[in-house]
Design a protein that fits this description.
By secondary structure, the protein is an alpha+beta fold. It contains five helices and five strands, in the order ααββββααβα. The chain is globular and about 35 Å long.
Length: 121
């Protein structure tokens, strides 16, 4: 992953929308677990430094509400990750916890949200 990124903005947007569709189609238990982990609506921003871009969504009730490009006025949870790594996370090829510990993924959130995030399915 040296030099120019392998993943493009289009690749990232496609995978994020795919993740949202999978979550919408997930069984009730998965959505209930996610809603229990993050019980209040949260705005989540993903910043991709290698593509010089950001995306955000609101997660509420175990569902993500639309994908938006740019930065929202307010962010509850901010994740910074390179595009290739994000795609590997979405595809299940990498662990969010291991990526966070290694510094490949940076997460800025309140302590309570960080504790809730570690419970995500």
């Amino acid at each position: 992953m040296r030099g120019s990124p392998l993943a493009t903005k289009r690749d990232v947007e496609t995978r994020l929308r795919e993740l949202m569709r999978r979550l919408d189609a997930a069984d009730h238990d998965v959505q209930t677990s996610l809603a229990g982990s993050l019980p209040d609506p949260r705005i989540i921003t993903i910043t991709l430094p290698d593509l010089d871009s950001s995306y955000w969504t609101t997660i509420s009730g175990g569902r993500m509400d639309g994908l938006h490009q740019g930065m929202p006025a307010h962010t509850d949870i901010r994740m910074t990750v390179d595009s290739d790594h994000l795609i590997e996370l979405i595809d299940g090829e990498r662990s969010l916890f291991s990526s966070f510990i290694s510094g490949s993924v940076k997460i800025e959130a309140s302590l309570s949200d960080l504790l809730r995030l570690r419970k995500l399915p």
